[in-house]
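Worked Example 4.2. Consider the chain below.
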Amino acid sequence: MTDFGVVDDSVAICKGVMYSIAPDLRIVDLTHQVKPFSILDGARFLYGATPYYPAGTVFVVVIDPGVGSARKAVVVKTRRGQFFVLPDNGLMTLVAERDGVEAVRDITNPAWMIGTRLSSTFHGRDIFSPVGAHLARGEDWTQIGPELDPSKLVRLNLEPAHIDDRGLSGEVIATDGPFGNLVTNVSAEEFLKLGYGHGQTVPIKLGNKTMDLPFVRTFSDVPLKEPLLYVDSRGRLGIAVNQGSFAATYGIQPPQPIFIPSAGK
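Applying the procedure from the previous section yields the following structure tokens:
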């Protein structure tokens, strides 16, 4: 997974490095369309995708706005037995909170890298791809470099949604791919504590806009081009327009605060 896009040869080069080390690899592209420099988007995509892959899977992740700086390049092994080869910049935040971390190693062994002189701007090619391939080939990961304290991994400072006497305060954190649905940090469990059920109208404050939205199961429960509130496929509260873009229709771009009062208030 990268934020490289697919316009140029960057992704193909990284795959070439991997195949030259381990020709029998199976490589799955999670996505190369992560919003450029968005560590948060990378973290949430990892959180969403990783449960569907088995122990032993190696995730090579390059969303690296600090490339060439003092930030560390690391391999993280979670308690689920998965490996993550990535910059230590917060990408592991959500996965680490859910799965736990068994061990972390600093990538320092030049034998696991390529080239006599590393590029200061393309560590995806020179460090992360070869390390991922060596790992997937079954080599001893303790040779990568010294062990690090897992508690010292860089973590994103994410403000969780919370409920008080007035209602629920959260945040729109992203849009859903090309569709323009709003992704929030509000879990279905938190939202349902407010007392709303399917078919009810829910008052919300979204940024500086106030609106009433029907809470429904799926998009087609409302007429075409009408807005709705729903629980998305990842168990979070979402805001959408049936066969339209909520973000474009209402001029909303994340991040935006969201507030929903308790039912009956």
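The two ends are 44 Å apart (CA to CA). The chain has two domains: 10-152, 162-261. Compare this with Example 4.1 before moving on.
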